[in-house]
Amino acid sequence: MVLLRSKTTSVFLLIFVACYSCSPPEEPIKCSSENTNCTITNSYGAFPDRSTCRAAEVAYPTTEQELISIMAEATKNRRKMKVATCFSHSIPKLVCPDGQEGLLISTKYLNHMLKIDVKAMTMTIESGVTLRQLINEAAKAGLAFPYTPYWWGLTIGGLLSTGAHGSTLWANGSSVHDYLLELQIVSPGGAEDGYVKVRRLKDGDKDFNAAKVSLGVLGVISQVTLKLQPLFKRSITYLTKNDSNLGDQVASFGHQHEFADIIWYPSQRKAVYRIDDRVSTNTSGNGLYNSISFRPIPSLELGSIRTLEELLEHLSYANGKCASAKTITSKLLNTAYGLSNNDDDFMGYPVVGFHNRLQASGTCLDSHHNSACAWDRRVNGAFFHQTTFSISLFKAKSFIQDVQKLIEMEPKAMCGVELYNGILMRYVKASSAYLGKQEDAVDFDITYYRSKNPMTPRLYEDILEEVEQLALFKYGALPHWGKNRNLAFDGAINKYKNAREFLKVKEVYDPFGLFSSAWTDQILGLKNGVTIAKEGCALEGLCICSEDIHCAPKKGYYCRLGKVYKDAKVCTRVTSKINICDVS
Ligand SMILES: Cc1cc2nc3c(=O)[nH]c(=O)nc-3n(C[C@H](O)[C@H](O)[C@H](O)COP(=O)(O)OP(=O)(O)OC[C@H]3O[C@@H](n4cnc5c(N)ncnc54)[C@H](O)[C@@H]3O)c2cc1C
Ligand SMILES: *[C@@H]1O[C@H](CO)[C@@H](O)[C@H](O)[C@H]1NC(C)=O
Ligand SMILES: *[C@@H]1O[C@H](CO)[C@@H](O)[C@H](O)[C@H]1NC(C)=O
Ligand SMILES: *[C@@H]1O[C@H](CO)[C@@H](O)[C@H](O)[C@H]1NC(C)=O
Ligand SMILES: *[C@@H]1O[C@H](CO)[C@@H](O)[C@H](O)[C@H]1NC(C)=O
């Protein structure tokens, strides 16, 4: 940085900065001076409402002892707090402390492996440990954590707090918190406790079901103990079929294969079934999953992909999107989405390999040389919304059929989603966690274009909105706590039968509400305002439209009823003048 002063080297420095800026994902926390006057955002650089969050200070404890003293001081001063992680990969505003004067407690350096007990098959780790570390360290000891999200870039504290999962209907399901044996949580306390209370909770303890999925409002999880298994091998085959009987297949397929999931391309009328099971360790194969979606992508390429997508949106050129989607899908299928039989080449199914090499990936975390993760905001990368919800296994068929009816009416409506690799369907099981899944369910992950301009509607705006409302309101789906747009959380808390129990525990653990914010109060039903009614609000999912102004009337988008789900209210492009007067 000294170089900055020299004029002759400034060009050189610029180049250096440009390259450096494209390496690993950007720090989500930025401070104007050393650890004070900070802003925090998520890894996409934008919360659903596009606001910026501020905090007066960030602290980086490196041990539980340091964490305790930081929290004691802050509690004594009745300071608002939130836990931040080195990634901040959640989409909603969970990480923002209330007001501008809050304290962020980062788990970036609270990332030590504490103990692996090979005999008992347990692992005790600090909460800032990443999924990648967890998987690698377990494998070194000959152990495996069976079901996890597919993306390395999450911390154990963050993924537990939002109820993150992989895919299975077997054993205790795919949620990481359902393999938690113990956790230690540091919460605010009274003067008599020295202003902090450290609680060690284990399976069977009264509050364990609250602490397993806590949205960060009970205090800071300092360490957790997980249940592992002996490392095993899996055999994976992707099988492509048409989607005519997807609804009939969805429940049984989930029971047939331990790691089953389905990628659905509704406009292409295709479903890709992941046939994925354990096999004996002596089955030959050293397969690797290096997901193409999570590989480093050259910044220039990202920029041109985005520019093309913006152009197609601008021209409302659905055929262009459909053609691109087909090309991308066939490329992904030909390359098995990034599976290889050894480290490099895909030569055919099945791909057999050790679990730790197949469950999750994320090589873009190590990006360098002008490449980045697809959504990196420093290059003109992908910018999208993610609508992610789980629908009871018994209702998934009807939901799928309703979406298929919409596609019959508007065949090209999902081409835009297919540019983001379609709808990922994964299995989850009912959990004892108060804010965990209430029933065995299918989780649908839908990613779609988000304009840089919040007032710009997207292609097939109405269909995407209708699918979202179908799921959440007709089928009572539960939104993923770490994803989604505001409207998904409207009334969501009422879908949890033990929500009240959760709130009681919150009262005890954080009596002063220091870890609560407007957003967490809103999603927990303690405050109104999850949705925000204003001009154009429905376009960003900040509201469900009730007036035309919530859409984009100047651009021809009006608030209308759904096509299949008549209770849906969606922003529909009205081309004929007659329809504009059709306000029944
Ligand atoms: C590319 C990508 C892929 C993903 N894949 C999956 C997937 O396969 N399955 C899935 O279910 N989800 C997936 N997600 C979503 C992800 O699981 C959640 O968004 C997760 O919460 C992010 O973890 P994080 O470590 O970044 O936590 P953050 O987003 O930083 O934090 C989440 C919340 O947890 C709280 N918190 C964090 N650490 C602690 C702690 N130690 N104590 C108390 N509270 C804490 C924070 O305050 C915040 O409220 C994915 C996200 C991305 C970006
Ligand atoms: C805090 O940072 C902002 C920019 O992010 C700056 O405008 C402001 O002056 C800073 N305040 C202090 C007290 O440093
Ligand atoms: C599932 O949960 C039950 C109860 O918490 C536990 O006894 C059991 O060991 C768990 N099973 C697995 C496979 O983790
Ligand atoms: C879909 O595949 C099934 C067989 O799996 C076949 O019977 C059916 O005709 C196909 N439908 C279409 C529309 O191609
Ligand atoms: C593989 O292991 C199984 C037991 O797990 C055994 O029955 C089988 O004979 C072994 N096969 C080979 C080829 O070693």
SSE blueprint and pairings:
Blueprint lengths: L9 H11 L8 E5 L2 E5 L12 E7 L4 H13 L4 E4 L18 E4 L6 E5 L4 E5 L4 H10 L2 E2 L11 H6 L18 E9 L7 E7 L5 H4 L8 E8 L1 E2 L2 E10 L3 H11 L4 E5 L4 E10 L8 E2 L7 E2 H16 L3 H17 L4 E2 L10 E4 L16 E2 L11 E9 L3 H14 L5 H4 L4 E6 L12 E9 L11 H14 L3 E2 L19 H11 L8 H6 L33 E5 L7 E5 L3 H4 L4
Parallel strand pairs: 3-5, 4-5
Antiparallel strand pairs: 1-2, 2-3, 6-7, 7-11, 8-12, 9-10, 9-11, 13-15, 13-19, 14-15, 14-22, 16-18, 17-20, 21-23, 21-24, 22-23, 25-26
Helix pairs in contact: 6-9, 9-11
Pfam families: ALO, FAD_binding_4, GULLO2-like_3rd
Protein name: L-gulonolactone oxidase
GO biological process, one term: L-ascorbic acid biosynthetic process
Helix- and strand-based class?
alpha+beta
Report the major sheet.
Answer: 8 strands, antiparallel
Low-confidence stretches: 1-22, 578-584
* Radius of gyration, whole Å: 24 Å
Distinct ligand kinds: flavin-adenine dinucleotide, 2-acetamido-2-deoxy-beta-D-glucopyranose
Any key phrases for this structure?
disordered N terminus, five-stranded mixed β-sheet, 584 residues, Uridine Diphospho-n-acetylenolpyruvylglucosamine Reductase, domain 3, binds flavin-adenine dinucleotide, binds 2-acetamido-2-deoxy-beta-D-glucopyranose, 26 strands, Uridine Diphospho-n-acetylenolpyruvylglucosamine Reductase, domain 2
Overall description:
The structure is a single chain. With about 575 residues, the chain is α+β, with helices and mostly antiparallel strands. Among the domains are: about 30-105, 2-Layer Sandwich (Uridine Diphospho-n-acetylenolpyruvylglucosamine Reductase, domain 2); about 115-230, Uridine Diphospho-n-acetylenolpyruvylglucosamine Reductase, domain 3, CATH 3.30.465.10. Helices cover about 25% and strands about 25% of the residues. It contains 14 helices and 26 strands. It has helices at about 10-20, 65-75, 130-140, 155-160, 210, 245-255, 300-315, 320-335, 395-410, 415-420, 460-475, 500-510, 520-525, 575-580, and strands at about 30-35, 35-40, 55-60, 80-85, 105, 115, 120-125, 145, 180-190, 195-200, 220-225, 230, 235-240, 260-265, 270-280, 290, 295-300, 340, 350-355, 370, 385-390, 425-430, 440-450, 480, 555-560, 570-575. It has an eight-stranded antiparallel β-sheet. Strand 6 (about 115) and strand 7 (about 120-125) form a beta hairpin. Helix 6 runs antiparallel to helix 9 and helix 9 packs antiparallel against helix 11. Mean pLDDT is about 95; it is low at about 1-20 and about 580-584. Bound molecules: flavin-adenine dinucleotide and 2-acetamido-2-deoxy-beta-D-glucopyranose (NAG) (4 copies).
